[in-house]
Every structure is written in C-alpha cells, then in structure tokens.
Amino acid sequence: MNDYGQYDVYDNLDREATNDGPLFLDDDVDHAEEKVDFDDPAIASLPRVMLMGPRRAGKTSIQRVVFQKMSPHETLFRLEATQGLERALVDHTPLCRFVVHDFPGDYYEPSDFEGGRTSLIFVVDAQDEPYDHVLQSLTSTVTAALQVNPNTAIEVFINKVDGELFLSDESKYDCRRDVMTQVTDELAEAGVSPDSISIRYHLTSIYDHSIYEALSRVVQRLIPQLPTLENLLNVMVSTCSMEKAYLFDVVSKLYISTDTGPADMQSVELCSDMIDVVLDVSGIYGLGPSHEAIRAAANAAKGKDKSESSAVAADTLTSEVPAGDLEEEIVDQDSAYDNESASVIRLSNGMVLYLKEVDTMLALVCITRSENFRRKGLINYNIGCLKRALQALVQPEMDLSSGGLVRRVAE
Ligand SMILES: Nc1nc2c(ncn2[C@@H]2O[C@H](COP(=O)(O)OP(=O)(O)O)[C@@H](O)[C@H]2O)c(=O)[nH]1
Ligand SMILES: [Mg+2]
C-alpha cells in the first residue's frame, strides 16, 4: 500500500490523516456515511455504481479492495456481513467521480434505481453452484431496474473465478457461457429482449487484475466525455508513434480511457504495476522539504549509470522530464503524486513505459517502442497539450481547442 492511498481516503472522507492503525475498520465506513453528505445536490447528481447480488458473492470485498486498498486476503476475516446500504464517494480525479452503493444482499426497493447515470453490477459467486436461484434473482433485479431507469447499464460480475475450480481459462469461459445462456433465456421469458438492453459479462476475482479490468470498463461507461478522451488518445498515439496510451486514476488504478487500438490485459496490468512503483518510490524519496535535494541526487545517479538493465526494471524513476512552460506550481508538497510526477521504465523487449501526470491524480501511461521514444520533446509537448485539453474538458469555460493543439506538432 502506498502512502498516497492513505492520504486520499482520509481527504475524501473529510477526516484527518493519521499514520497509525489499520486503514479501514468497520466503523470507518459508518464514519464515511456520516461525513459525506450524499444528499448534497452536487454529490446526488453524480453517476452511481450499484453493487447488488446475493450475500457473500463478494460485493463488499470488491469495493474495499479496489477503492479502499484492503488486501484481498484481509477480506477473509475483516469483513462482516453488510447490514444496510453503504455508500462511498469515489472522487480522486475530476473526470471520474461517482458514488458506489453497496447493497446488503438481494434486497432493494424500486426507488433505489431512480436517478441519472447508473451502472448496476450484479455479482454472482462462481464457486456457488447451481446458479439457478441467483440468476432468477438477477433477472428480477434487472427487470425492476430497467422499468424504473431504462438507461441503466447492466454488468454481470461472475466473481471468485479463482482457486482449484478455475485453474484453466476454459473453465472460466465455460462458466461465463453457462451464465450468459441462462440469463438470456430468463430475460426472454420475462419479456425483455437481450438486444434491447445493454448487458455485459465479466469474469472477476479480487485476487488478480481481472477485477480492475472489469471495473475500469464499468467506470468508462459512466464518463460522458469518453468519446472525446478516446479521440485525444488516438491522436496522441498516432502523432507520437506509440503502441498504446492509457489514462489511469492513480488512486483506484482503474483506467478511465484508452485509445481505440486493441488493448491486452497484460499491458494494462504492467501499466498499473508501474503506478505502484512510482507512488512507492516517490512516497519514500520524493516527499517533503528534502524533495529537491533527493531529486538532484537521483538525477546525478542517473547520469552516472547509463547502462540499461536487461530485466524488467525501473532504471529511471521520478522527474525525468524537465518542468517546461506547461508545468504549474506543485499542488501538494506532501503528496507522493504531484504535477512533476513522471517515470520511464525500459523493458527488456525493447518497449518503454512512460508515465506522466496529466491532471489531479490522473496519469497518462504510454507504451512505446524505444526507437520512437527518442523523440521525447515531441512526446512531452503533446502530453502538455493533452493536459490542457483535459483541463478544458473539466472546465469548459477555458475554451481550449484541444485537438488542434495536439495536431499542431504533427504538422
Ligand atoms: N476466492 C475468492 N473469494 C472472494 C472473492 N471476493 C470475495 N471473496 C470472499 O467472499 C466472502 C464474502 O465477501 P463479502 O464481500 O462479504 O460478500 P458480500 O456479502 O457480497 O458483500 C469473503 O470471505 C471474501 O474473502 C474472490 O474474488 N475470490
Ligand atoms: Mg457486503
């Protein structure tokens, strides 16, 4: 766990940061409910992610592991049954803000579905066969939700696809196929045509990266500016001859957008691991008043040792990029992530991972071939433009024509 995770969680809940004691006790959650005013119109109008499904399917575990950085093993003994609806605000970066509703079980009121942009995640325990009863409940929940709010995005998480029962990929795919067939049949029986609704199926486990991948896709659907973000990243990737570019919320480690080229889970996982490395290293070496001195030392060491590691190793960390005219003041001196955060990791297969801060708690992580990474000025200039375009997206009054800015370098 990185230091930043602690800061942000407490900030969000309007609590004082403390360094001792476990991060989340059960009463922390009650406390969170007390402190955040969910009836405040600004918060009530945010998109919602509703975690529903049978008891012990893993709803609370998913929420704690991804948004509150509880370790997956801790969910085994730290979690008690959820007694009532628990809500948590996820507000790390301006482009991606939403409220998570964690339901206690198969219980809901039709009025729970009222509201604006909503993703309903129905969590199914893949290790608890047969699924008949659960999938009937899924169908009735989905129908009720769609009656109240026809635009609800339905996401089925087939959770706990880990352990002895799911050693091979085939067993996971078989499980997903069974669930899909049964749900489609049940929905057709209930008079809902599967083509008329948006329903997606995800194989997940809190013990690996699959839960981050699935939630990233869920969250992306909630962002109204997603097409613009994808467009910006497409231009970025083609202008700078990159292989792939992701925008990551560095706290939750969900990627909120990527270019439209094919994405593979391994590269996403690699980029996500890079965020951990950067936050951990800057948490140790990049903080406080000695920040500058340590950075100078790191730069000196970097100059001395130019030999490249053949392993997948972080050979150059933190503040690789000179603060150009696009950089602003450091926002928070004590944060492990600020507007100077940047990192380069060279992989043994000739690829380079480049991470750069682009907005509050938002990082651009790109994968590029090392020969294309030589044009770093171009890359940095374009990232600067992207950064301004993102600011304009959040504050439209800035009136910056982003696409034009990015392309200007290409021409
Ligand atoms: N093996 C495995 N166990 C999980 C997973 N997700 C949750 N669990 C376990 O399932 C149990 C119930 O989880 P909980 O989050 O309380 O379920 P909820 O009632 O749906 O909120 C806990 O012991 C978790 O450790 C998973 O992906 N894999
Ligand atoms: Mg629960």
Automatic annotation (TrEMBL):
Q: Which family does it belong to?
A: Belongs to the GTR/RAG GTP-binding protein family.
The reply to whether Transferase figures as a keyword in the UniProt entry is no
Signal sequence: where?
none
Protein's recorded name: Ras-related GTP-binding protein C/D
Q: Can you name a GO cellular component term?
A: Gtr1-Gtr2 GTPase complex
Q: Which domain of life, per UniProt?
A: Eukaryota
Write the record's keywords in alphabetical order, separated by commas: GTP-binding, Nucleotide-binding
What is an example of a GO molecular function annotated in this UniProt entry? GTP binding
Q: Which GO terms describe its biological process?
A: cellular response to starvation; negative regulation of autophagy; positive regulation of TORC1 signaling
**InterPro entries per UniProt:** Gtr1_RagA (IPR006762), P-loop_NTPase (IPR027417)
